[in-house]
Amino acid sequence: MSIKLNYLKKTSSKSSNLVLFCDEKYSTDGLKKYLSNIEFSYISDLIKTVDQKKNLFIFEVNSKKKIVLISIKKNLKTSDTENLGAEFYKKINFGKNSEYFIISDSVIGKNNNFLGYFLHGLKLKSYEFKKYKTKKDTRLISINVVGNKNKPSVQNQLKFKALEEGTFYARDLVSEPGNVLHPDEYAKRLNSLRKDGLKVNIYDEKKLNKLGMHALLGVGQGSIRGSYLVTMEWNGAKNNSNPLAFVGKGVCFDTGGYSLKPARFMEDMTYDMAGSATVVGLMKNFALRKAKINAVGVVGLVENMVSGNAQRPGDIVKSYSGKTIEILNTDAEGRLVLADALTFTEKKFKPKFIVDLATLTGAIIVSLGSEYAGLFSNDDKLSQQIYNAGEKVEEKVWRMPLHKNYDKLMNSKNADVQNINYVGGAGSTTAAQFLQRFILNKTPWAHLDIAGMAFSKYGGALNSGGATGFGVRLLNQLVEENYE
Predict the structure, then answer these.
(1) Which of 149, 217, 238, 432 has a CA between 20 and 30 Å from the CA of residue 248?
(2) Range of the domain at 228
(3) Could you read off the pLDDT of 248-296 as tens digits, one per residue?
(4) Are residues 94 and 189 both part of a single domain?
(5) Which of 131, 152, 173 is a domain's end point?
(6) Model-level pTM?
(7) 91, 121, 152 — which closes off a domain?
């Protein structure tokens, strides 16, 4: 199934499927000009008999024509508008090829960029990953926006398209199986982002070893694949101001290492690189929409496997920061990757802030389920900005505690720090407390634990199940509202 979006001046025929908008009371008087007398009478009579608490109705006028009637509530939030577009897509996503004409002039009230957000929600909902299906779904839904009023501006069309492409790219990466998107292939794909205008640097094992990134390298040493740190820079500001930094965990497949995961659901561990995918999608979005900021994305790419060369429980490694880490559990690997990536990002780029994203702990799912990502931060202002952005785009976060009293749970008898809390409890907080030790210069920092948000088995408002791309829209909103 694919979506084709066009902007036209008029409908192609009288038998076209129409999409019309009205107020929350389903007043139809303003729709006469778009319908024949028979159609208008038919719709006006039917609308009196239905449950008007619903937002959307589809009326079949005849075998060739449908009329979709959508009510626009007062004080509609942009996220509600996006959800309306997604609901519309769900209703029409069946059957053969189809064509719909959205009458933009029928949009009522002062709904700023209503159709832009409506179509954005529709496009986000339409995403499917069926690359490996041998039987292709060749159906096409044509969406034609007709009229002179209320159309999204060219600038807004470009903005939404960039955000969609960034989100879809993140979803594509997370959806790929581990035998395809291993670290070698992932690094190669990121190198191709140069064509979008990003400056890409790839640090391979030889370079990482020379830099002293032994925490990251230790995670990947059991794999036949390489380990990498990749930086993506976007310089869109007119000055040479310090960049905004985004760091992502890219464990392309996570067996747990010698602290082996249970076999059940291990196949889901292809999405343990979702934090990195969000960073990549976000950076692609910045480049495509020519964001007026300086930003850097940093991702650590590894594969956590079992072999004769794999890291062992009890090993001690020296991180890029100089701190030593005792590995008590090889399945607490993401924080090791991030430890080196965070210190490197802070030292090399001296950013205004750092936001890292990772599918870091199962404990955050116990705490927050699949409704909120966990937010941990050393900075109240940055935390509030992320929270507000999440509320606006419905990629919600909930701030969780960090406190020095948790540090004792991560102190090691044999090294500077250990990688798990063996006492038990506060799994997400102690993981974040571990990461905080690798922010050395008090840079404003936020950690988003997205383990419950990166992948949905059942689908959500703006995705149909599978990879969600969580974080791309959230962090784009953060930047748009506060830093651009």
Answers:
(1) 238
(2) 159-482
(3) 999 999 999 999 999 998 999 999 999 999 999 999 999 999 999 999 9
(4) no
(5) 152
(6) 0.96
(7) 152
pLDDT in tens, 99-154: 999 999 999 876 779 999 999 999 999 999 999 999 988 899 999 999 888 889 99
Which residue's entry shows tokens 């030593």?
A: 324
Residue linked to tokens 């608490």: 53
Per the structure, the count of domains in the chain is 2
Same domain? For 165 and 186 the reply is: yes
Q: Could you give the C-alpha distances from 314 to 53, 317, 380, 484, in angstroms and in order?
A: 60, 10, 36, 46
For residue 151, what are the contacts with CB-CB under 8 A and spacing of at least 6?
Answer: 7, 104, 115, 145
**Residues belonging to the active site:** 261, 335
